Amino acid sequence: MWAAVESIAPKIGCVPQTLLEWVKRQEVDTGVRDGVTTADAQRMKGLERENKELRRANAILKVASAFFAQAELDRRFKS
Questions:
Q1: DSSP-assigned letters across all residues of 11-69
Q2: pLDDT tens digits, one per residue of 25-63
Q3: Other CB atoms closer than 10 Å to residue 7's CB: what's the count?
Q4: 28 and 43: one domain?
Q5: CB within 8 A of 1, min separation 6: which ones?
Q6: Closest by alpha carbon to 75, among 67, 51, 13, 46?
Q7: Which domain, by its residues, includes 46?
Q8: Which residue in 18, 44, 52, 54 has a CA-CA distance of 20 to 30 Å to 60?
Q9: Domain harbouring 16, CATH code
């Protein structure tokens, strides 16, 4: 495999290590090799981003809720 990669890589303008990584990635994506497929990795990255956004929104809502709860308590005691 390495001999083939070394002979082909210069012809397509890359280093052998890069070409070998592309071959490995293709093998994972087609199920020949074990690993996380490109589609699954992209999906997980998107879900992690969404999770981060939801945690941020949740934190903002908690602060806002506490603020309005305190404002309501202050209003009741002033009346």
A1: HHTS-HHHHHHHHHHHHHHHTSS-S--HHHHHHHHHHHHHHHHHHHHHHHHHHHHHHHH
A2: 999 999 999 999 999 999 999 999 999 999 999 999 999
A3: 10
A4: no
A5: 20, 23
A6: 67
A7: 37-79
A8: 44
A9: 1.10.10.10
